[in-house]
Amino acid sequence: MTRPSEPLHKALARDTTPYLIYILLVSAIGPLHFGYHLAELNAPQDVITCAKERIKAAPKTTSNISSTLPQCIPMTTDQFAIVSSIFTLGGFIGALATGPLCGRYGRLHAMRLTTIFFVLGPILESLSPSIPFLCFGRFVSGLGAGATLVVVPIYISEIAPPEGKGMYGSLTQIMVNVGILLTQTLGYFLSRDSMWRIILAVAGCIGILQFVCLAIVPESPKWLAEHGQPQRARDILRKIRGRKADIEDECAAWNVDGSPDDIAEEESLLNARPGSDSSSNPKSNPPTPSAGILSALMHPGYRPAIIAVIAVMAAQQLTGINSIIMYSVSLLSTLLPTTAALITVAVSALNLFITTACAPLSDKIGRKTCLLLSIAGMGSSSILLSVGLGQGIKPLGAVATLLFVASFAIGLGPVPFILANELVAPEAVGAVQSWALAANWIATFIVSQFFPIVNQAMGGKGRVYYLFAGVALVFGVFIAWWVPETRGKRSAEEVWGRKEARERVE
Length: 506
Fold this sequence. Notes:
Blueprint: H1 8-15, H2 18-27, H3 29-39, H4 45-48, H5 77-105, H6 107-126, H7 131-159, H8 165-169, H9 171-190, H10 196-213, H11 221-226, H12 230-241, H13 248-252, H14 260-270, H15 293-298, H16 303-318, H17 321-332, H18 340-357, H19 361-365, H20 367-391, H21 394-410, H22 416-423, H23 429-457, H24 464-482, H25 492-496
Helix pairs in contact: 3-7, 3-9, 3-10, 5-6, 5-7, 5-23, 6-7, 6-10, 7-22, 7-23, 9-18, 16-22, 16-23, 16-24, 17-18, 17-23, 18-21, 20-21, 20-24, 22-23
C-alpha cells in the first residue's frame, strides 16, 4: 500500500519483488502469442500466397526447408482474408469458454491449458500443405489466444500491487506489442521462399517455454481467498510481496474472514479425512459462486459493466488498429513500395515504445481520460492517413500511420484489458471479461475479414479511413457518456456510485 505522501514510483519499487516480476512476465507470454499470431501473416502475405518469392530485393537464392511441403499456397485475396480471420473465430470461442473456466477452476489452470493450443496451433500452421490445413492451425491458435486474453488480465490485476494496477495492467498490451514486433521482424527477414514456415513455427517454441515456466507460478491469492482458502492466499501473497511488506489492507479487501481462529479452522478442514462432515460448523463459509455468462448479463448490477466493457473492446478494434497490424505491408506498398515492410517493423517498435512509456499514465490521469485522448488521436490520424494515401503524399502517409499507432498505444491499447476487473465484483469478473473479449474478437473478425474488401470497394487510396474516423467519433461520444472512471476506486460499488452492498449471484 502507498504510505501517506509517498510517491507512486517509490511505492511500486518497494512492492515489486523479483518473484512478482517473474510471475508477470511468464503469465504475459500468453498475450504475446495473441500479438504474434495476429500479425504473423502480414509481412509474408505475398510469399505465402505465391504472389512473390520474396518481399524485398536480395540475391536470388532458393531456401526450401522441406521437400514434401509446397513452397507456397496459392490463394485469392478473399481466401487469404478467410485464413486471417479464422484466427478470430477461434479467439471468440476461447474467450467465451474461459471466463467460467477460470472462475471455477482457477486462473493458473486456465493459463496452463492455453499453452496446449499455443504449441499445437503453430505445429499445424507451419506444416500446412493447403488452405484448410492452415485455417485449422490458425483456428487452434485462436482458441489459445482468446482464452489467454480473458484470464491473463484478470490474473495480473489480482497479483499486482493495488497502487499500480493500471501500470501493471498495461503489461498485457505491452506483450501483445512485443509479439507483433517479433513476428514483423522475423517476417522482414524470413519472408522468402518457404522460410515463412519458420515464422509460424517459432510461436510453438514460445508456447513450450511458457508451459515450463508456469511450473513455479502460483494461483491467484484473491481467487484462493474467494474459494475458501484464505491462509494459502495470504502465504502466496506474502511470498509475492516480500516478507517485510504490509499485506493486511490487501487481505482485508478480499472480504473474507481471515482471523486466526478461522485460519486454524480452515487448516483443520483441509486436513480432515475424506467423508468428514464440515457442514455442521456454522462458521465455515462456502466459496462464493462465480457468475455465469448469461446470469451476469441478466443481473442488473452487472449489466452496466458488461455494456461498458463491450463498448470499449469494440472501440479498440473498430477504430481500425488491425488494418495496420494485419495489412500495413500491402496497404503501404502502393505509397512506399520499397520500404513498406521496414516501415511496418518501425510502426510495431513505436507501438511497443509508446505503450511501455505510457504504462503509468492511466494511474496518473485516469483510465477514461486515456481512452478519450486515444480515440481523439486515432480519429484525427485516420483523416490524415486518408489524405496521405489518397493524394500520394508519402511523408504525410508515413507520419499519419505512426501517429495512428501512437494514439492507440496511449489508451485504447492497454486500458480495455484493465477495466473488467475494476467494474464488477470478483465473482463476475470472469463472465464480464468473457463478454468483453467476445466483443473484441467479433470486432477483430469484422476488421480482418472485411477491411480488404471494403477498402477495395471504396476505390482504395485510403478512403476507408474516413469510415474509421466516423466510428471513432461515435465511440468517443458513447464512452464519454457511459463508462465511469475507475482510478483510485476500491470497489465496483464505489465506481458506479452505489451505496448498497453488492448482491451475490446465486
